[in-house]
UniProtKB/TrEMBL annotation:
GO terms for molecular function: NAD-dependent protein lysine deacetylase activity. This is protein acetyllysine N-acetyltransferase. The keyword Secreted does not apply. Residues 1-239 form the Deacetylase sirtuin-type domain. Keywords: Acyltransferase, NAD, Transferase. It comes from Pseudoalteromonas neustonica. The keyword Cell membrane does not apply. It is an enzyme of class 2 (transferase).
Length: 239
């Protein structure tokens, strides 16, 4: 059976990586609090890269050395699309997973969306936390407080005001959805576009759906089963 697994932040929580919308996601600039959905935007990166990169570093890069958990290892030989950017599926040995929202360990030239660019390894270990803001601006080649197209670098992460492009392997992801005999969602809140896209494909092709979550979101699908459990409990049950 060709089962496609689509994972979200709930899968990485056991590795000590907080879910995206948790309390630690918020950020204060001056006297104003910004939500993760306000911080993680192309507009914030362009207009205030100093704060954007500091938030991104604290929110994600500080977890870059965390290791995969049992669920990642179980998924290491599976057909997998993950919404997580932490790279833990790769660390667990999955050679062909799709990181549909990007990868923490990579960056690209700052480009027009859709342009063909090559990912580079982000040298996070070169960051000097004693002068964090300036060090991050230097790392991403941002002068005069604003990134320059095709000169500065941008983290390889899909932001809320951006759209899926081939950089994120969107066509391959859609094909994997259409080819699946079953789609299993693990640890996702169904609040992002890729999960809605997968559900639409499942409805169109009459693909059964399984939702693994202690408090699963209820979805509209004629053939859905709910597994009210953690991803770890689920894989233990699967054997």
């Amino acid at each position: 059976m060709n089962t496609l697994y689509i994972t979200g932040a709930g899968v990485s929580a056991a590795s000590g990586i907080p879910t995206f919308r948790g309390e630690d996601g918020y950020w204060t600039i001056g006297s104003k609090n910004y939500t993760p959905m306000e911080m993680a935007t192309r507009a914030m990166y362009q207009n205030n890269p100093r704060q954007f990169l500091a938030w991104y570093y604290h929110r994600f890069a500080t977890y870059r050395n965390h290791g995969p958990n049992e669920v990642h290892h179980w998924l290491s030989d599976k057909n997998l699309i993950t919404q997580n950017i932490d790279g833990l599926d790769g660390k667990a040995g999955n050679k062909n997973y799709i990181a549909i929202h990007g990868r923490l360990d990579q960056m690209t030239l700052f480009h027009h969306q859709g342009d063909d660019v090559t990912p580079h390894t982000t040298p996070w270990d070169d960051v000097d936390e004693r002068c964090l803001h300036d060090s991050l601006l230097e790392l991403f080649k941002i002068d005069n407080q604003q990134p320059v197209l095709n000169q500065s670098f941008k983290p390889l992460v899909l932001l809320f005001d951006e759209y899926y492009t081939e950089l994120y392997r969107i066509s391959e992801a859609q094909q994997r959805m259409a080819d699946a005999d079953k789609i299993v969602f693990m640890g996702t809140s169904f609040s992002v576009n890729i999960t809605q896209m997968a559900l639409e494909v499942a409805r169109s092709y009459a693909i059964p759906v399984e939702i693994v979550d202690p408090e699963p979101a209820h979805i509209m699908h004629p053939n859905v089963s709910y597994k009210k459990m953690t991803a770890l409990e689920y894989i233990q049950q699967q054997g």
